[in-house]
Design goal:
It is extended and about 70 Å long. The chain has helices spanning about 1-15, 30-50, 100-110, 115-125, 130-140, 165-170, 180-200; strands spanning about 20-25, 50-55, 75-80, 85-95. The termini are far apart. The chain has seven helices and four strands, in the order αβαβββααααα. Helix 2 (about 30-50) links the parallel strand 1 and strand 2. It is an alpha+beta fold.
Length: about 200
């Protein structure tokens, strides 16, 4: 909401003599919502405000706007890949990024090696064009942290987290209201009852 209120002020008040700087508009919502908002904001700045603007985004789809918005100029930060590593050159150049380097940045930031390996597996699957069903299959097709585990994956009923463990992993106790906590207790009890019934049968 804070991001949208600030963006609303800009779009409602900026004029041809304004300099607008926007960074990752739409990042705080679902991917398609965010892309749609960012797309519409670029068009509004170009067609209505006619302001000079720097608009940083990770939505690569927005580069298509350069075909229809004559004053739009695309630029990217230069990157060089060397011996399997990414080197950020801190230079602005005309054009668009050839790829996303989010996983490399995560690695530089110090995320655990198993997390980086898992992210690379998921990215590889999604880049094959299987997005429609990939997210639903990820847990089965790419067991969490399969790389480096000594225990065989996918063998037997205990190879993955149980429904109870999945629910427990999502809980943020400090963020629950009293009503949400009560509903959660009922949900957990139902899961335990289902598990007991399955074991008896």
């Amino acid at each position: 909401m804070v991001e949208m209120v600030e963006t609303a002020v800009i779009l409602n008040q900026a004029g041809p003599r304004s300099l607008v700087i926007l960074d990752e508009i739409g990042r705080g919502t679902a991917t398609f919502d965010g892309l749609s908002i960012a797309w519409a904001c670029v068009e509004h700045l170009h067609e209505v405000n006619r302001a000079r603007a720097l608009f940083a985004t990770h939505y690569h789809e927005l580069t298509a706007l350069s075909a229809s918005l004559k004053a739009l100029s695309l630029h990217t930060m230069r990157v060089k890949e060397w011996e399997g590593q990414v080197v950020f050159l801190h230079e602005v150049a005309a054009g668009v990024a050839e790829g996303s380097y989010g996983i490399h940045v995560a690695e530089l930031a110090g995320l655990p090696g198993k997390t980086i390996s898992r992210a690379k597996q998921i990215l590889s699957m999604l880049e094959k064009g299987e997005q429609s069903g990939a997210l639903a299959r990820l847990a089965d097709d790419l067991p969490l942290f399969a790389a480096g585990n000594d225990e065989p994956q996918g063998s037997g009923p205990d190879s993955g987290p149980s429904p109870l463990e999945v629910v427990l992993a999502k809980i943020a106790p400090d963020d629950l209201s009293a009503r949400e906590a009560l509903d959660l207790i009922y949900e957990l009890k139902a899961l335990v009852a289902d598990k007991s019934a399955a074991e008896k049968s």
